[in-house]
Amino acid sequence: MPEANPILHLKDVRYRWPGRASFGLNVPDLSLAKSETVLLLGESGSGKSTLLSLICGTIIAETGRISVAGTDIASLSAGTRDRFRAEQIGLIFQQFNLLPFASVHDNILLPLQFAPERRKRVADLKVEATSLCQHLGLPDDVMTARAGALSVGQQQRVAAARALIGTPPLIIADEPTSSLDAATQATFLELLFAQSRAHGTTLLMVSHDARLSSQFDRVINMADIATSERGAT
Ligand code: ADP
Ligand code: MG
Q1: Where exactly are the structural domains of the chain?
Q2: What is the rounded average pLDDT of the residues 164-192?
């Protein structure tokens, strides 16, 4: 059902990686409603991560329109777009992208430096960062540890805390549970869903694990929303 004010809307979006004639992504129409939790499935190489990069504005569509919270992201200058992303989107990457030599505390608070509105929603930075870590099952003394010294599963949970702090309206996660064991994965997902319920956060998560489907409001298959052009090479 079309949503009047979707948090995310893509219309006739087309993208091709520079110098890569073999892959092109077309997304005719995709909308995500406020507070929806959406699982995006699709085979490897089908363009899931490319689609997330387009939504985040780290790459810009050749044609078509992508709006996040009503703003056409291509209309923003590069610097404005970086700040807009920090305000609107909590990002969890496949490779976490933590600063390895910085403390867990500093990693979690990093996006707030570029997002004054998001920063205002956090009454006490240390208390909030500690609380997120506790909910994610991280040890009490984790805040002062160097991020690079943590296990892979712990780093992924720090990346989740960094995405959740200051409750951005949209959380985007690219295969975030692939390095977590089953119990940790359940805790991790529950925290994302709890944020969605409590704050109306929209969650768009990519996974290759179709078993997660029943936990989400909606499941989207890349094959149904996108046509990818694949040439010879
Ligand atoms: P998925 O996340 O579904 O596995 P990707 O979006 O990562 O798919 O990749 C889709 C296609 O785009 C692949 O052919 C991949 O090689 C290509 N691609 C992805 N990232 C880049 C990049 N940074 N530069 C060039 N080509 C890329
Ligand atoms: Mg990917």
Answers
A1: 34-46+78-224
A2: 92
Report how far residue 152's alpha carbon sits from residue 155's, in angstroms, rounded to the nearest whole number.
5
The pLDDT tens digits for 29-66 are 999 999 999 999 999 999 999 999 999 999 999 999 99
Name the residues around ion ligand 2, CB cutoff 5 A.
48-49
> Domain 34-46+78-224: which CATH class?
alpha beta
The token pair at 165 is 């702090």
Pocket probe mutation, ligand 1, options 13, 17, 225, max atoms within 8 Å of Cβ: 17
Q: What is the pLDDT of residues 66-96, one digit of tens each?
A: 999 999 999 999 999 999 999 999 999 888 7
Q: Which ligand is nearest to the CA of 59?
A: 1
Residue 64 CA to ligand 1 center (angstroms) comes to 20
Report the candidate in 95, 164, 173 with the shortest Cα–Cα distance to residue 135: 164
